[in-house]
Amino acid sequence: KSRSLWPLLSTVISWRGRSVTIKCPTEDQNMRKFWCKRSNEGDCITIISTSPFTHDRYKDRVSLTNLPKKGMFQIEMRSLEELDAGRYSCGIGKTNNRASTWTLVVDLKVFDGTVLFWVLQCVQDVCLQRRCTLWVQPH
């Protein structure tokens, strides 16, 4: 079985204080598995891996569970903070910084309970943009 050259891309939306679970596909259960966060410089900083390693900032907030019969491993991030938002990758291999080792790329969005959006209000061909705040109560 050969894997696609490009990883799957997914967007995950959650709220501050909540948890997310990410299911990462893998074909080789014996290889090192990792979850990393992409930096502005392009590096992918390890958050957790089966090396074993867990980044200090995520201690007690992240776990990696092998699910070999399902051909995947699972990442759970708990007590989310707005700083956790960003682009992550999970994959298998010795290095995090090669797209060829990624099996999934995740854009994680973390909101604080409010969502800002623009409303276009038009009356007789005159349109005004208004900034609105929507308070969302996550369930």
UniProtKB/TrEMBL annotation:
Domain Ig-like intervals: 7-100
Species name: Crocodylus porosus (Saltwater crocodile)
Gene Ontology MF terms: transmembrane signaling receptor activity
Keyword Cell inner membrane carried by entry: no
Principal location listed in the UniProt entry: membrane
Protein name (Swiss-Prot/TrEMBL): Ig-like domain-containing protein
Annotated compartments: Membrane
Record-level GO cellular component terms: plasma membrane
Pfam families per the UniProt record, alphabetical: V-set
InterPro entries: CD300_family_receptors, Ig-like_dom, Ig-like_dom_sf, Ig-like_fold, Ig_V-set
UniProt keyword terms in alphabetical order: Membrane, Transmembrane
